[in-house]
Amino acid sequence: MKAFTYERADTPAAAAAAAARPGARMIAGGTNLLDLMKLQVETPVHLVDINRLGLDRIEPSENGGLRIGAMVRNSDLAADPRVRRDYAVLSRALLAGASGQLRNKATTGGNLLQRTRCYYFYDTARPCNKRQPGSGCSALQGFNRIHAVLGTSDQCIATHPSDMAVAMRVLDAQVETVVPGGTRRVIPIADFHRLPGNTPHVDTNLQPGEMITGVTLPPPLPGQHVYRKVRDRASYAFALVSVAAIVDAGGGRIRSARMAFGGLAHKPWRVEAAEARLAGTVLDETTVDAAADTVLAGARGFGHNDFKLPLLRRTLQVTINEAARAA
């Protein structure tokens, strides 16, 4: 780990201003950043500690939803009675991620900002356009079992690792921020993360120094909340494929369905057209398979990860059936 300086911010605006300086980074739980610093994948010259800004509350919002402070720990968010009752897909996604110890430290804002777990991103001896733009993508011709099959580019096929973000995508969460000048803005989570394109080193649409202050959820949505994560072992593994679903069904018919996917792309993936194919239909294998066709339109495997295409189809079948049976 390289030497760095450190300060503790007093306000969100001050933190944003300090973090906007070249080479500065914010630190909250540090569950991802410290690992990257030890490997010298990240080499900040200055850290801005945002742990004491009072952003650790979960509160009702004016429109009947919920506002989650950026510093709320993952374990606290998963255990909150309002989240468990009204946003069960979020609670389940959080509990599917990492270990208990990490969830006790990791924060809501940091979870949205965690970086890919691509092997080559972590290996500083290998080319990686996300770590060093223009150096190449080792995963394209390398071992790419965990990599993306949707929204990829010739520059990068890494996936976004967060379970929480997939649930927030299906809930249409809004991300609240403050920029270095003190101005606040709201970013729909659909627009928060970026696809790799020609700039895979840029993960989000945040401006330099812009700080997440909270996330708001809409009023509770009707239906069964399900989060299904397929991974290589039962705990402490990232998703090969995950599905966050909210399904409103009864009498063998689907009234409405929302679905978002993890492990498939550079960002949480959602295809509203696939949801429209399920709405108002009789639940059967053919119907869900047609929705899977829509999700997978344009999908491309890279050899080792070809299995993700049929795996997504099977996982979606199980998830929708589970939700409909529970209705």
- Give, in spatial order, the strands making up the sheet with the most strands: 4-5-8-6-7
N-to-C SSE string, H for helix and E for strand: EHEHEEEHHHHHHHHEEEEEEHEHH
The total of helices stands at 13
Which class best fits the helix and strand makeup? alpha+beta
Structure description:
With 327 residues, this protein is an alpha+beta fold. Helices cover 30% and strands 20% of the residues. It has helices spanning 12-19, 33-38, 74-79, 81-86, 88-95, 100-105, 108-113, 119-122, 138-141, 164-170, 272-278, 285-295, 308-326, and strands spanning 5-8, 24-27, 46-49, 58-60, 66-69, 174-178, 184-188, 211-217, 224-230, 241-250, 253-262, 281-282. The strands form 3 sheets. The chain has a 5-stranded antiparallel β-sheet. A 4-stranded antiparallel β-sheet has the order 9-10-11-12. It has a 3-stranded parallel β-sheet with strand order 1-3-2, with helices on one face. Strand 2, helix 2 and strand 3 form a beta-alpha-beta unit. The N and C termini lie far apart (51 Å). The model has no long low-confidence stretch (mean pLDDT 96).
